[in-house]
Amino acid sequence: MPIRDDVLVVGGGLAGSIAALSAAEAGASVRLVSYKKSTLRFASGLIDVLGYPNGDGPVSNPYDALSSLPDDHPYSLAGEQAIRDGLDLFDEVTADSYRGSHTDANALVPTYGGTVKPTARYPEASAAGLASDARSMLVVGFRSLTDFDARLVSEHLEAAGVPFEVRGAELSFPEEFRADAKVTRFANALDRDEEIRFAGRSVGAREALAETVKPRLKGVERVGFPSLLGDEHADEVRADLESHLGVDVFEIPMGPPSFPGLRLEDALFAALDDAGVRMSTGNPVVDYEADGDELQAVHVDQKRRKVPYHADEFVLAAGGLVGKGIDSNRSRVREPIFESYVPHPSDRYDWFDTDAFGDHPFARFGVVVDDEMRVLDRNDAPQFANLRAAGAVVGGADGAAEKSSSGISLATGVVAGREAGASI
Amino acid sequence: MSDAEHPADESNPNVAQDDFEPVQVFPEADEMDLRPGADNCYKCTTCDSACPVAEVDDEFPGPKFQGPEQWRLKRKSDEDIDASVMDCSNCMRCDDVCPSSVPLSQMHNTARGEFVDERMEKLSREYVRNRILANYRTMAELGSKVPRLTNFVMGLGVTKLFNEKVLGVTSEREFPEFATQTFREWWDERGGPQVRSEDKRVAYFHGCYSNYNTPEVGKALVRVFEEFGYEVVVPVQRCSGTPMFANGMLNDAKRAAGINVENFSGLIADGYDIVASCTSCSMSLKQEYPELFDLDGIEDVSAHTYEAMEYLRIHEDLEGALADSSVPEQSYAYHAPCHARNQGLDRQAVELFRELDGVEIEDVGPSCSGISGTYGWKEEKYEKSMKIGEEMFEHMHHAAGEVGMTECPTCSMQMEHGTGYEIRHPLQVLEEAMA
Ligand SMILES: Cc1cc2nc3c(=O)[nH]c(=O)nc-3n(C[C@H](O)[C@H](O)[C@H](O)COP(=O)(O)OP(=O)(O)OC[C@H]3O[C@@H](n4cnc5c(N)ncnc54)[C@H](O)[C@@H]3O)c2cc1C
Ligand code: SF4
Ligand code: SF4
């Protein structure tokens, strides 16, 4: 007798995790099957709901802007309540580690490119850095960390017209790490508060870092670092730096590898574990078995061997073009597991706009769903009675341009998971 | 890049690279062209962030350098392989996380082989030491002939001092004890298979450790499979090759692989599948053999090899079989070996035993145990190995269980060494539940 569950979710990103949790809440036995690590490893860890609807913005309240979205937009299908339910579930999972739930309004979070991003939920670690806060700011970068240029960040923030004074300083990390030391190496040294040589004596890495920054403070009220202040003990690292420096300390999300994204992944994983969701990761789903319009099983490629995983209900949350849920070659765009219908112009020169920052059709490529997130075929009929989709694999939105990716994953994940769970 | 600057879907070229299939690119058996794999790398550094060695060792340039960058350098000029490849522990974590399916561990294994062949002094202490560690089986075979004497000698301070000073094997570790009766001796004594079947057949790859050191794991496997009605056979076999890959001893590995493939591949036509109780052994047969060697029957062996519990989960209603079972109260701190993770098997023990009456099991998290086979035995690597393992030790101490559980024999040494816990194999608990 093979591997069998009530609900099987394909994909372990934000959408898949939320769908699995929602299905488990409905009482189903759930398995999540995921290939590689999700895009959370690259993502900022910020949870955007809607910042630039139809290319306009930034909007301060995403809910007010929902009615302006087209009818086939995933938000229009899922509905406002689904967004709120998704965020509620997210808040439950992340508990004290995220902020923003006190208001419907978008928060403005500085990013490592020096832009200011409208977002619905942001990590606690970034809380002291909000751009709407008028306190003066020092941005610290490290010479060996070339991806993050503190002076550039502060100049961009200034140019964006933030209501505070901001300065940037590039320092040398107190310990002599090799020139191209990994971000993880810094984070770990701080996490473990490794004893290092500093100014002729042996001190903890946190204290040494604080001492290095101190001379640059010159009266600022808060200090921002690239997001590498610890991993498992990030809260402690920040608290220690704050007590040494006497000012608030925050992280500016940076990517990849993105610690805020990794920490979010850990929180989701812990929640899935607590909810009893079974997880099989590391191998891709490559095929399926159906009986008429009922899916019976998906096949997981376990080192060149196909192993069937049976279930009653299925949720496809394999991500978009980035996550590999949608695939494209020179002639067509396809959903590789179920060969679900993905509408796109037949001429590939119509897939993108000639303007790099224009409105690109490819950004909206994805499967078509109904208001229960059931995957539809080209005639608007369900492709299978028991297949739903969630997250970036669903078409109809340019999440990156609208700043809505995570919100869409949450809303569609909740609907797909809940409906799948309820169908058992 | 954060999508604050660029629309995510455009800025991140993290798209499927289906056109590259590592095994297809070998023009000849011993000449590998991994360049197409290197070209798939878009320098996202995800692999670097997952490498446990880079996390603790400033000098180690990380998997991205060892893999795609080194291959590019080699293509442009005739650069020598960098010595740092010997610091890679072959945990294969980089392989597991690369979103672009760059064949990292295959590149590392090949590079290590080339480095050892061309650049390592064959009389050097390091080479000799590595060769001894990699060929554990040879030592074990000798040692297990007189287990009590060997255990006694290995435990002596003077032996440890000799090992460390002359060979470079750390004196911090206790040598694993040799069993007084090997698994194979037990197998012969009981008269081989007790169950015969035409359609349920497995050939057991026991590897060195469960033969010489923990025969109770092998016995558990046999009893569990026979309980499910399988005919179990135990072909003559050599080391799976894992420690040899990790030390760049590809010729030794190829020789061992040749014998294993020869002895196992013939059984497949008769309906046997191969099961292993060590996740590095199953990894080796499933993935490293066909990646590195071109031998008759190797594809067959690869396609028919399973980790033991994986096999039962696919073919039997293991959950159903345990539904009414119970065992005396026991709780475990479970560590998933890196090589189980790579096969997608890192959650199966937790999943199954969570449902078993009497058992409490807690996953101690995703960190690497740090020993990585022979790596943690080397005097110069011992401290790094313990530093990598620290996170796991800490999580084990916090977990409810006072007994550890894992599928990998060397992880189990490290768990025991770092916490003093007794360590069991999931098959032993299965055996107990099925009894
Ligand atoms: C660089 C970057 C920056 C971002 N920044 C932000 C941000 O600032 N704010 C924001 O709100 N959002 C951001 N996002 C988007 C967000 O992180 C998620 O990508 C989005 O929510 C989509 O999530 P998902 O779960 O649908 O897909 P993904 O996160 O792509 O996950 C898909 C999962 O499916 C798995 N999978 C794919 N194919 C298969 C298969 N065949 N079998 C099994 N598993 C499979 C993948 O391995 C992966 O784990 C960013 C994304 C990227 C890439
Ligand atoms: S090898 Fe893979 S994970 Fe490493 S940098 Fe290249 S693409 Fe990224
Ligand atoms: S195999 Fe392990 S130690 Fe070696 S480079 Fe990859 S992640 Fe690092």
Explain what the structure shows.
The complex is a heterodimer of chains A (424) and B (435). Chain A is built from eleven helices and 19 strands. In chain A, the strands form six sheets. In chain A, strands 1, 2, 13, 14, 15, 16 and 19 form a seven-stranded mixed β-sheet that branches. In chain A, helix 1 runs parallel beside helix 9, helix 1 runs parallel beside helix 11 and helix 7 crosses helix 8. Chain B is α/β, with parallel strands linked by helices and 435 residues long. Chain B is 52% helix and 9% strand. Chain B contains 25 helices and eight strands. In chain B, strands 2-1-3-4 form a four-stranded parallel β-sheet, with helices on both faces. Chain B has a four-stranded parallel β-sheet with strand order 6-5-7-8, with helices on both faces. In chain B, helix 24 links the parallel strand 7 and strand 8. In chain B, helix 12 packs across helix 14, helix 14 packs across helix 25 and helix 23 crosses helix 24. The N terminus of chain B is likely disordered. The chains are: A alpha/beta (424), B alpha/beta (435). At the A-B interface, helix 6, strand 13, strand 17 and helix 10 of A face helix 1, helix 3, helix 4 and helix 19 of B. The site of one iron/sulfur cluster has 14 residues of chain B, from helix 3 and helix 5.
The chain pair forming the largest interface, with residue counts per chain, is:
A-B, 64 and 55 residues
Helix and strand element order of chain A: EHEHHHEEEEEHEHEEHEHEHEEEEEEEHH
Number of helices of chain A: 11
Low-confidence stretches of chain A: none
What would you report as the Rg of chain A, rounded to the nearest angstrom? Answer: 23 Å
Topology, number of strands of chain B: 8
Please, how many helices of chain B? 25
What proportion of the residues of chain B form beta strands (DSSP E)?
5-15%
